[in-house]
Fold this sequence. Notes:
The protein is α/β, with parallel strands linked by helices. The chain has a single domain (12-247), classed as 3-Layer(aba) Sandwich (Rossmann fold). Helix content is 41%, strand content 14%. The protein has helices spanning 21-32, 44-56, 71-85, 114-142, 153-157, 163-183, 216-227, and strands at residues 12-15, 36-41, 61-65, 90-93, 145-150, 188-195, 238-241. Helix 7 (216-227) links the parallel strand 6 (188-195) and strand 7 (238-241). The chain is globular, with a radius of gyration of 18 Å. The termini are far apart. Bound molecules: nicotinamide-adenine-dinucleotide. Nicotinamide-adenine-dinucleotide binds next to helix 1 and helix 4.
Amino acid sequence: xxxxxxxxxxxxxxxxxxxxxxxxxxxxxxxxxxxxxxxxxxxxxxxxxxxxxxxxxxxxxxxxxxxxxxxxxxxxxxxxxxxxxxxxxxxxxxxxxxxxxxxxxxxxxxxxxxxxxxxxxxxxxxxxxxxxxxxxxxxxxxxxxxxxxxxxxxxxxxxxxxxxxxxxxxxxxxxxxxxxxxxxxxxxxxxxxxxxxxxxxxxxxxxxxxxxxxxxxxxxxxxxxxxxxxxxxxxxxxxxxxxxxxxxxxxxxxxxxxx
Length: 259
Ligand SMILES: NC(=O)c1ccc[n+]([C@@H]2O[C@H](COP(=O)([O-])OP(=O)(O)OC[C@H]3O[C@@H](n4cnc5c(N)ncnc54)[C@H](O)[C@@H]3O)[C@@H](O)[C@H]2O)c1
């Protein structure tokens, strides 16, 4: 057995929501590990602009416009990716929004607009399901696959003001476990990574035990490990990348804490 962590043997990955912070960091890290990457996003222009520096490094990454909420279009995009790259070994189900129009602040559940709730569920839950649905038959016929879904600390312990998003992320974690069980005998692992508060620029934060926010690269590292050939004995696992937030709220009064 190869003793190196995160080995990839000629693998092809799809990363959804790749124009976003965690998606982009994941694309870069996979490319640098030798993986060919199909980067997809709803916002094709932003995606193209953000992946250009990776391509300029001579790494194999291509951009595809995709709306994960559209199952038919998703099937077509994945078919195109297979035409271009020959196969899909890895799916990183990263596209997700906690606040779809970026206008809504925290809201009590009973104040939420039904249309907004449906949109949140369409993107965060159906989006993950649509991509898994498109890729699984191909992975089963290959006898190999790595699926990494993005959960959230909100899906683990809840997030007041974002009940719809928290419900979706909890569902994604259980969906992950169930797909892991259904596909383990086919050489396919299915895991999730649950970020805490991740910002492009790390800042001090007393809501985590580590005392700061996390960086997109810190989440990407966990995703890349689970996506690697060497992680074949981990399935149905959720890795929280949250500065210890899952352990409970930070107790500022604990001796030695950094509050
Ligand atoms: N950043 C955090 O603090 C945090 C915390 C917990 C979980 N997460 C999860 O991690 C993932 C990535 O988060 P991020 O902070 O990088 O987000 P981001 O907002 O930077 O990127 C999300 C990307 O998804 C794309 N997208 C939105 N709707 C889409 C659709 N219908 N089809 C395809 N693409 C679509 C957006 O265009 C955007 O580029 C998400 O699933 C998010 O819920 C993030």
